[in-house]
Amino acid sequence: MSGKVVGLLANDTKPAAVETAAGLAQQLKQRGLQVRMAPEFSDDEIAQCDFVVVFGGDGTVLAAARLVAEHGTPLLAIHLGRFGFVTEASPDNLIDAVDAALEGRCEVHERMLLAGAIYRGGSETAETQLLAVNDIVVASGAVRMVHVHTQVGKDAIATYAADGVIVSSPTGSTGYSLSAGGPLVHPDVRALMITPIAPHTLSARTLLVPDTETVYLTVETQTRDAVAVTADGQTGLSLTPGDTVAISRAPYNVRMLAAGGPNFYQKIRSRWHYGERLTG
């Protein structure tokens, strides 16, 4: 075990996360383990880590996942945020969870990622690449409708007059997609979800398509207000009429370590009280 390398990444805006990470770093070093701490991570260091422990809420975990996924380095997520649906353990059982990871007793859950390519003004060459764990969204930057032509493969689906369109992964079904009326989807389901945001119609619902498809979202020419594409609500770029975002499954997954915490079904019951009857 002394040859193990553990990466630590904490949300530096949360003092509790920074303090907890520093405490763990000290304990691991005392046990003869090598520790790498962000923001000093290089790509080589991420690849050298046996796993990375991330301290924060869901947003911190999403950012960490995009950072490590390409290297295949697993993540162990410690809940120090508000909701924490994708986090695995709490500070109370931190050492037990880390020991389980060090001893190879954790399950490894492969979570699919989304890849987004931006094509400007009908160009056939992608200008920018995006990566997301939860969702890629094309939406208005103002309180006005935008018109987004939506296509799956070679088939046109609809031109949504809406606040925007969300394309989410199964992991993202518990995020923005859910707020827009999308379904809860188990993270092992192989699908992409297309959900219009506040569409001006009674007939638009979430559409699930196989994860082998590519979804194309094109900003229509009648759109006059600012439009943006965002990945996980954290990275974004402006779009203009005629721009297209092509969204597909990324060529690699993010590997999440499960150390005996609640599973998907237990989380929707405990966090959202799913299926419980409301009584007066």
TrEMBL record:
CDD domains: GAT_1. The active site is at D58. This is NAD kinase. Keywords: ATP-binding, Cytoplasm, Kinase, NAD, NADP, Nucleotide-binding, Transferase. It catalyses: NAD(+) + ATP = ADP + NADP(+) + H(+). Its cofactor is a divalent metal cation. It is found in: Cytoplasm. It comes from the Bacteria. The gene is nadK. It comes from Armatimonas rosea. Involved in the regulation of the intracellular balance of NAD and NADP, and is a key enzyme in the biosynthesis of NADP. Catalyzes specifically the phosphorylation on 2'-hydroxyl of the adenosine moiety of NAD to yield NADP. NAD(+) binds at D58, G59, N134, D135, D163, T174, G175, Y176, S177, L178, S179, A198, Q234.
